[in-house]
Amino acid sequence: MILARIATRQIPSSHRYEEGELRVIAKGPSFESLVAESFDQIRGSAKGNVAILSRMLGAFETLACLTDSPHRRRALREQVQWIAELAERTIESPHDRVRFEIRLACVREALETKPVCQLTKPVS
């Protein structure tokens, strides 16, 4: 997942300075906009689909383990909340709802604790 690699990196400021003077304001993506671009449409199509909703939670749990940035974690929390709201409205089976709620609790816990994951580079 490309977002996992980005989660560990600093995205340069849009303001570029030279010798202390602002020279350029570059328009580029933020982590938050990349997360939204990656998941908003999927979430919109995942109504009632426990497998897709759970996989999305798994992706957010991975990202939560990789970043300690408060802004990035807030963006992840918002996405998780929107998934939870969708699930509450669209998952009909009590059994599926319980499974989803357990997964949701794990992701929320990951977002509240210090990151513990490390990405490793593939061996060439």
Q: Which structural class do the helices and strands define?
A: mainly alpha
Approximately what portion of the residues adopt beta-strand conformation?
Answer: 5-15%
Compressed to H and E, one letter per element, the order equals: HEEHHHH
Number of strands: 2
Q: Number of helical segments?
A: 5
Low-confidence stretches: none
Sheet having the most strands: 2 strands, antiparallel
Envelope shape: elongated
Radius of gyration: 17 Å
Descriptive keywords:
5 helices; mainly alpha; 124 residues; elongated
Word description of this protein:
The chain is mainly alpha-helical. The chain has a domain at 31-112. 63% of the residues lie in helices and 7% in strands. It has 5 helices and 2 strands; from the N terminus they run H-E-E-H-H-H-H. Strands 1-2 form a two-stranded antiparallel sheet. Strand 1 and strand 2 form a beta hairpin. Helix 3 packs antiparallel against helix 4 (70-90). It is elongated.
Give the SSE layout.
Layout: H1 2-7, E1 15-18, E2 21-25, H2 31-45, H3 50-66, H4 70-90, H5 94-112
Antiparallel strand pairs: 1-2
Short recap of the structure:
With 124 residues, the protein is mainly alpha-helical.
